[in-house]
Amino acid sequence: MSTATGLPDSQTDARELLDGQTEVLELIANAAPLPDVLAGIIGSLEHLMPGARCSVLLLDRERRTLHHGAAPSLPGDYVAAIDGMPIGEAAGSCGTAATLNVAVVARDVLTDVRWTDYRALATAAGLRSCWSTPIEGRDGQPVGTFAVYHARPHRPDRREQLLVDRFSHLASVAIGHAHLLEERQARQEAETARRTAEELSHAKSELLATVGHEARTPIQAIVGFAELLATIDLDEARRREALDHISAAAGHVMDLLADVLDLSRIEANALPLALEPVRLREVVAEVFGLLSARAQQRSVTLVHHVEDEVVLSDPRRLRQVLLNLVANSLRHGRSGGRVEVSCRLAQPGTVLVLIEDDGPGIPADLLPRIFTPYARAASTGDGAGATEESIGLGLALARGLAQAMGGDLSVGGTGPGGTAMHLGLRDAGLVPR
User: Fold this and answer.
1) pLDDT tops 90 at residue 1
2) Which pLDDT score, from 0 to 100, does residue 275 have?
3) How far apart are CA 29 and CA 347, in angstroms?
C-alpha cells in the first residue's frame, strides 16, 4: 500500500520519524524546558498515529507518585485529576506500568480491572483505551510513563509499538538530560551559596575586627580618664574636662554600636521603619542647622535648592542619611568651598536628591568599594607621613537605610572638581502645608 506521496508507508514513517527526532534533539540541544521537549515528542507521535492522544507522566520515586509532564491533546480536567496519582498494580495503565516496569495495555477501560478507580474519569474525558509504556532511566528503572489513548477500544499493532518504543527512548533522553541540568544547576547553586557564605563570614569577621579596633581607642580614653578621676585630686575645671572626654568617648562608642546594630537589622530585613510623607526641604534645613558650626569651621557655604518636594520615608532615618552625606561633603570638600543640595524628579515615582561638593573626588581605587564598611584608600597626604583613611560605616549604612525605605544611594559622579552623591527616594506627591 502506498501513500499519497507515492512512497511506501514504512518509508514515510522513517522520514517523518527522522524529522521528528531531529526537531526534538534540537530542542534538547538548545536546553528547552522539559515540558516543551515532551510536548514536541508527543506532537510528532500523534502526527504519525492519527486518532491517538498521548501523555507523559513523570515518576517521583521517593513518593511513588506520577506527575504531569506533557499532554497537549488531553482534557485539562483529566490531566489535573491524575496529576500526583499513586502508582500500584491497580492504578490504571500508567500506575501499573510504573510499578511493574512493563508495558500495560488496557484495550477497554470500561472492563479492565486495573481501571476500576479511574474509569469514571476516563469516561468523562472520552477515553476508552489506554496503553502505557514505562520510560526507563539510566539505571533501567522507570522515570515516567508514555501513554497512548484512543476514543474506542484499541490494541496497538506492531507499527505502533515500534513508534512508541522510539519516542519513549527520546523521552528518556530528554528526561535524563533535564535531570542532569537540574543536578548541575543544584551543584552550581550550592557552590555559589558556599562561596557567598564564606565571603559573608570573612566580611563579618573583618567588620567585627575593625569595629573592635575603632572602639578600642575611645574605650581606652574612658578607662584612662576614669582612673585619673579616681587617683588624682583634680580641680573643678580639670575634673569637668575629664568628664567631658569620658562623655564624648562614650558617645562615640554608643554611636558605633548603634550603626553596627542598624546594619545587622538591615541585613536581616528587620529594621523598624515608620514611612510617611515627609517634606524634604524641612529635613534638609534641619541637617544644615545641625552642621552649621562644622561648616563655619571650614568656611564652607551650605546651599540647598529644595522646594515643595515630598518623599515617602522615615523622617528620623532620612535625617540620618542626609546628615551622613552632607557631613561627608563637608569633610572631603574644599575648605572655603561650597556644599549644595538639590533635587528633581528623576522618573515617575522617584525624587532624586543630589549632594554635591567641590573636593578632589573619590580615589579611583576606593570607588568600587565606596559602600563597603571601613574600606580604605590612600589619603591625600604625601611622603612618609601619608596614612590610609577609613570611610567607616557611614556610607554603607546610608545606602542600606535608603534601600530599606524603597530608594537607593549611588555615586552620581566624581572627579577633581568634586563629587555628587545621588539619593533616590520615593515620591509622595504634594501634601497640604
Assistant:
1) no
2) 92
3) 42
